[in-house]
Every structure is written in C-alpha cells, then in structure tokens.
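User: Quick one: structure for sequence A, then sequence B.

Assistant: Sequence A:
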Amino acid sequence: MKTISKLHSHDHAPATEGRTIRWAHLYDALVGVMTLGKGQAIRETTAAMAKIKTGDKVLDVGCGTGDLTFAAKAHAGVTGEVHGTDASPEMIEMAKRKASQSGTQINFQVDLIEKMSFPDNYFDVVLSSLMMHHLPNTIKRQGLAEIRRVLKPGGRLVIVDFRRPNTFTEHILTALLLHGGMQNGVQDLPTLMKEVGFSNIETGDVKFMMLGFARAESA
C-alpha cells in the first residue's frame, strides 16, 4: 500500500469537470441541516443495502469527510480493507483527521472518480452517496466505467443520491435542499450503468426526503 502524504488546505485539487467542494469545515454541519439530522440513518441504510460482509474490500467514492466510509468499515470489520476517495484535498484532510482521532484504519486519498488509481477487479463493494449529482453526464459515464473496472466480477455498487423532481412540490423541496434546477437524478443512472456493463440494475426510493438509490452488480 502506497504512503499518502499529509495534505494541507492550500493543496490544489486535481482538475476535473465535476464540482469539487472545498469547504470541508462546513460540510458536516450543512449535511446535518439538509438531512434534518437523519445523516447517520441514511449512511447506515446505504451500507446495509450494499450487504457489506466481514473482510470485504470497500471503496467509498466521493467520500467527503468520511462518515459513510466509517459506516462501511464498521460492516467490513477489522479484516476488511476500506478506502475513501474524494477530489477535494480539504475533505480528505478532514476524513484522515477523523480516522486518526478515532483510531480507525481507513485509507483516505485524493482521487478522481473518472481516473481512479486502483487496480482492476480489486473491490467487493463500491459506495457513492450524495456525489453523482455534482457530475456532468460525461464524467458520470466515465466514473461508472471506472467503478466497474475496479470492482470484482459480481461486485456490488450502491449509489444513494437526490431524485430528479417531477412534481411542483418536489421542485420546491429540492430547492429548499439547495439543489434547485436539477435536470437529472439518481433514477436516470441505470441507462449509463447499463452502457458500461453493469447488470441486475435496480432503483427505488430511500425513505428520506428526496433521496433514491441505484444498485447494480459488476458482470
């Protein structure tokens, strides 16, 4: 395992067409407000949907400050190998600080979803939470292709993200959650997932606000 050097807030984020959130010091508080305090329940739901087993190798793509990654580690156990990646150096610095303070063995690193540094067929599970909506469709497709590349055959992908609003009430709620104007949502991902070779694709609602899921297996 390569050594990751300590990051500092002035480090440059890698170039990407996706949106990179740099204000890590405010992120957890904002997520708490946006989820009405249900953040931990959403993370546990996401991890449970992935059916993470003890000893699994798990990747949390776009991990932010790492809260879902910690939930994944709790499921994978001490024998599990868990990684969290994000394009934002500030997010990774915060996540690594949390891991150090809690004594949790998780590998956090700056990495792009569309150009991952992991080998082929490496992970049993890949997770993504509240990240895909930040990406243009070209990067979504590239990122999903990369996820399929790093997943083992039969590996599992679970994405939890905002649904595209369809009714006036949903448009208002999405705007209140600071995501007004969304043109695509998690329910639109299956087309791209199928294009890059995923199978057993399913979507549905998560019983929290405007969230839904897309789940699939690597062929």
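Sequence B:
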Amino acid sequence: MARNTKVQADHNAPAVTQTLARFVATHPSKGWSDAVEHEAHRTLLNWVGCAVGAARHDSAEAALGALKMLQPSPQAAVLGRSDRVDMAGAALVNGITSHTFDFDDTHLKTIIHPAGPVASAVLALAEGMGASGRQVIDALVLGIDVSCRVGNMMYPEHYDRGWHITGSTGTLGAAAGCARLLGLAETPTAMALGIAASQPIGMREQFGTMTKPFHPGGAARAGLLSALLARNGFTASPRAIEAARGYAQTVSTKCDWKEITDQLGERFEISFNTYKPFACGIVIHPSIDACVQLRSRGVKAEDVERLELRVHSLVLELTGKKEPQDGLQGKFSVYHGCAAGLIFGQAGEGEYEDAIVNRADVVALRRKVVATVDDSIDEASADVVATLKDGRKEHVFVKHAIGSLERPMTDANLEAKFHGLADAVIGAGRASRLIAECWRLGSAANVSALVQAACP
C-alpha cells in the first residue's frame, strides 16, 4: 500500500546538474586568473604535505591492510609509501591520510576540506592514465568549484543535520574532477555527477575516530568510480542533484540554487581556500592563536590560575571534549588546544600525539580552561582572559586567526609546514624536491616526477 506522504519540495528547481556538467566539460583550460592558478598550486602543496605526513599512521596501515585483501593491481601510488594499489584504492588511502591529522585546507564559508576528496581522486586517475600536470590542475580547480558551490548551496542546514560536508559534497567534486580529467562531454559528465549524487558520505558522529578521515577518502573513491562508470555508459538521472527527491533536497532543508550559478566560471571557490597552522578543527584556531599570543607576552602555564574563553556556540558543539583520551580526541578539544598553544607556542601534529594529550602538565592546564558560549562572538573569533596566580589578568581578542583569509599563511609558511609533516617520513631532501614538483605541476608533462618524489 502506497504511503500518503506530503513532501515540501521544490519541483521546479533549475537544472543544476546539467549546468555544472556543462561548466566542467567546457570551461577553457587555465580559464582563470594567475591568482587562482597560484592558489591551486598552494592547495596541491598543502594536500601532498598532509598526505605524506600521515603515511605511517595507524589509519593508513589499517586501510592498506583491507585493500590488500582485495588483491588490487598496482596502478597508482600511496603518497609517502612504497605501496602501489589500484586507482580507487590510492584515492581512498591518500584521501584518508590527507585528513588524518586534521591539518588540511579549509573553505571557510562551508568548512569543507576540499582538496582531500578531489586531489586524491584526480591524482590517482592521472597517474593511471598518464595525464599531464596541466590537466590535473584544471581538474582540481573545477572539481573544488563543484564541491564548494554545492556546499554553499546547502550550508549550514546540511551540516546541522549531521552530515560531514567534506565527504558529502566531496563525492560530487571528485566525480567532476575525474570527469574533466577523462575528457568526458557534457552528457556523460552529468551522468558522473548523477551517480555520485547517490553516494553522499560522512556523518559528524564519527568525529574523533578513524572514520572521520575515511570520509574524504571514501568520497574520492566514490567520485572516481562514478566518472569511470559514466565513461563506460552507466546512466543516472539528469536531475540527480536538484530533483524533489534528489541529492540536495534529500540531505538538506536549504537549497539556495543561485549559489551554483552565481558568477560560475568567473569566481572560483579555490580562491577562498585557507590552510591550517594548527592540526585540529578550524573553530579552535582563534582560541589557540590567543594562547600563543599570551605566551609571547610572557604568560607561563605554571602561573595561570584560570583561562577563560568566550566563544561561539559552534566551538563547544564541535570541540567541547574536556578530557580527551588520545590525539584524535584532542583535535576536538578546545581545552587541549588552548593548553598546547600556551605551553608549546604551537599546535602542530606533534602537540596532538597521545603522550602529549595525556601529559600531566597539559592535563593540569586544560582543566583550568573555562569556556563560555557567547554567540555575539563570531565563529572565527575568540575572547580569552588569563587570570594569573598573582591576580594579574592578560586579555587577548582574536578577530581572525592566523591561517584565515584575513591573515593567510604565506608560501614560505606552507613550505615550512610541509617540511614539518614530510621530513620524518621521506627525508628533508626528498621533501624539498617534492615541494618543487608541486609548484611546477601545472607545466609538467605528467605526474611521474611528483609521485616519484613522494614515494621513498
């Protein structure tokens, strides 16, 4: 018996799937400004560094162990390792490692980490098919544009429903990037997007576990498979994204269609990408920045009686773990982030090692942190007051943290971060060579030199 269910849906939504397909299939190669081109290479550099840095992490070992049981053919590299697996497997593992440290790029308007799904899928496919570096950069820019525009269309309602937006939109971005790399025409590109639309990946419940970094890896693999299916004639609804019971209206109560079409082909969302100086959730960064500033003023952890934060409610919703038990949980603790910032003057991956999260002085200081919700303060800001044992108070207000669009990391900052992640895995000399290959990829004949530099 059919259900008598009323659905409040937009049955006259514009042809979003076809619009995006036409854009991805027909936009001119390097059809953007030099600034966008440079940002694409910054995004690539940051993604490679994050992926290589986590190449020996337990999450990589576990994922590779599962993949090897499937007996994959050695088509593509796992960055930072000597392992080679099939293209889909490489997309999965590189996507996992690029997000494992929570140190990857962030599109702040949507808090999407766009490179993980898109770059992981595109590089694996490029290696398998012998694509040029120019083709890879084109696919990266266009794939990220698709995922972030879809994110703009649905954020924040989609995120508030519990979706991890990096994975749920990343599948579409990865499909778009791979469709472009394969040279698919408009109709099969629409099919690739349609197939990907039935595979949204990721729930916020998984934050603090290995399954969180699985989300961009799973999205990369799903997007790559979607493009390959479309290339071989597999079909999908040509209105899979916008239909009343399609992707967008199923996973979100907000569907602002104009976010897809506004300045499409003129404004590129990769221009608004940012890069993390701290290896944790982006909403903690203003508080850590404030604590680093307190340390630079001479405030010492042992002199602190109380550390008071006033932050937006999203900070505690996402990162309110008061007693993290390991590094992964520490990345979702504003309390640990503040302790690390004040004690060490930084919060890189080393400050999120299990031993540091459980170190006595770190635990003691984070228990002195008192966080209060104040929604008059922007998500990107933090108000921090340190009360010292002698009664003095030190106050820092951070409007925009280091790494934001207003205070961006420089190219030199990104290279230093890269070395901090990659040197211990592949050696400083090889890391320098890999950095150079990332910067020159747009003019490279293929991706071989980059992959060889990344894999010891």
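Confidence is low (pLDDT under 50) at residues 1-7. The chain has 21 helices and eight strands.

User: Thanks, that's what I needed.
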